[in-house]
Structures are given as C-alpha cells and as structure tokens.
Amino acid sequence: MSSHASIPSRPHRACRAGAAFALAGVLAMMNATAARAAKPAPPLDPSAPMEEVATSTAATWDRVVVLPDGRIIAEAPAWTGVKQGGLVILDSAKQPHPYPDAAWNDPATPEGQRLTAPTDIQLQDDGTLWVLDSGIAADGTRGQPKVVRIDTRTAQVTATWNIDAAALRPDSRLAAMRVGNGHAYIGDEGVPAIIVADLDGHAQRRLMEHNPALTAGRPIIGPDGRVMKNAAGHTAIVNVSQMAISPDEKWLYFEPLSGPIYKLGTDVLIDPKVTPIELEDSPTLWYKSPPYGGIAVGPDGTLYLNDVSTSSIFRLTPGRIYQRIVTDARLQWPAGSHVTPQGMLYVPAAQLDRTPALNGGQMQVTWPVHVYRINVAALPEAKF
C-alpha cells in the first residue's frame, strides 16, 4: 500500500493503528470497570441444601442435563482414563444406558455414526440436545471432531456437522461448546481459540487464537490448595474449557479452567465484518474468578459457578451480585451443571482432580461419583 497522504480512498496505516489503539483503550477501561463491578454478598447461612439424585461406580460424569421427565443425561470424558461409556441416560431406577443408543457409543460403529469422545452437552428448551465430540479417543487416537444434534423426544440423531480441518490445528482439542443464533461456539482447549460454525450455511471460522481471555495464565488450584499436575507431573495447563450462553443468546461466557471468567457478545462472533483487532479486544473480564469446573445459566440469567478449589457453588446475578450459596465437602470437583426451567440445579461431583490428567498420572477416584440437586428457585434473594 502506498504511504502517500494524497490517496483519499484508503485510511492511512497510522490512522488505522491510532483508531485501533483508541478502541483498545476504551475496551480496556470497560473491561476494568466490569471486573470491579460485581458486588460480593455474604454467603448463604445456612448453605443451600443438596439432595443426592444419582451415583456411578464406573464413570466420572463431568456434564449433566435433565430432561423434562426428570431423566438425567450424563457425559463421561474419555481423557480421564476411566473405561466408560461416553454418553448415557439414566432410567427411572437411575441405571445408565448408552445414549442416544448403543450403536452411537460402540467403537465398532463407523466414525461418522458414533460418539468417539463427547466433551460437552447442551440441552435447549425445545428438547434439542447438542453434543460436541472432540474425536480424540481415550488412547489419544485422533479422529473427526463434530457437532451432533439429537432430538431427545425421539432419541434420534437428526444432524451432524464435521469440524473442517481448516478450522483446526494439529494440537487442537475441542472442549466446550454452546449453541445459539443458529451458530455453534466451540472452545479449542488445545490451541486456544473459538471456532464459530454456522449451522445453517455450514461456514466455519477460527477466531481469537491465543487470545489471553482463552488462554490459561495461572495454575489450576484444586481442593486443599493443591496445584493440579498433568500425567507427566508438570503443572497442568487447561485453556478455554467452560462455556455458557445467556437465555437470550446474546452473550457467551467462557473461561480457561484456571479462571477468570469472560463475557463476549455473540453478535461480535457471528459478524464476518468484525476485524481481528476488534475481536482481540472484545472480551470483557466478567469476574476475577477462581477455577470453575462448570458454568450454568438459570432462566433469569443468573450464573451458577462451581468453584473446584473450595468445593463451593456461587451465583452471579444479572445485577452482578456475587454470592456463595453452598460449600460442601461432597462437592469434590463440582463440574458441568444444568439448571431446569423450574430452577433445579443439577451438579455432578466429578472428582476430576483425582484422575491421571490432573493428578500427576495417578488414578485415585473414590467411587461412587455423585450427582446432586439444589433448588435454587427457592433460595432467598441475593443481597449485599
């Protein structure tokens, strides 16, 4: 490009840079303000009561959703090293069965018609279940990552979307996903980025690679202040791995496992006209949080945040009041939760800190693994 000022049809590079820095400054101030704006409230006293609703002696369930009839669908990650099915549904006796059926969980089924390694699930109000399959088997074998749509009313897979090779990197590991506005927002934990997949037009874009909001910047502190170690005994690094989307589908919340939590407008992500520099500076630091094993959103937009370091659950209201609602030793690594339309919060205590990938290569899960229920609709109003 010519540097002559006499070319009026193109903005000068210095002008564009100045505008970019000005935009970055404004966004930085907004982010700083947002980070300070949450108002801490005294913890609930007594803590919210928890009810055990399911247990497993064979699977480290780390994500759950609940159907209108009360049946629980649970996901067990392949990377934990536990021999287990990837996706199950619990019957009325709380016994697990492969979901949506045995063939979709059978390693002998052709890859395009099975779930190799589910890593995230999302249930929408119309009964649609979205499943993110990383394609990375328990032995590390890499296959085709994909998004799978299931109609829970019929337990039938209605569509699949393969993630394009162009949207991936050799070390990609897809770990989190939320769907809204006809798009899937997918977190790449292996090489931090967000992949936005248009579920109608099938276009896919890889955005914000190595953005600080997606990248682990500190150790993961687990129970008793212990730093999580990977299988090789080094400090475990887990980039963007938790996501939630607001009820109106306008806001995406996400965090690396170590925290903190960020917020980003979905309109920014789906607009191809938004420039890379605008995307780079768009995430808002929503709360300087500890490590969260799960983020769930209630019908009113309240965030429920599972603190793995203290076996606690916090809520962050739309009015940005931050309050601990329960601390309980039974919540050994509270993981991916689900809030029903009636305000029942389901939380798996996944014990992921006792699996090899976060425990220096040692398997020390204490069976059974539990799922608990909390009636958050009945909790008193958060006040500070």
UniProtKB/TrEMBL annotation:
Record's subcellular location: Secreted
Pfam families: MRJP
Gene Ontology CC terms, in alphabetical order: extracellular region
Keyword check for Signal: yes
InterPro entries for this protein: 6-blade_b-propeller_TolB-like, MRJP/yellow-related
Record key words, sorted: Secreted, Signal
Transmembrane helix found in the keyword field: no
Protein name (record): Gluconolactonase
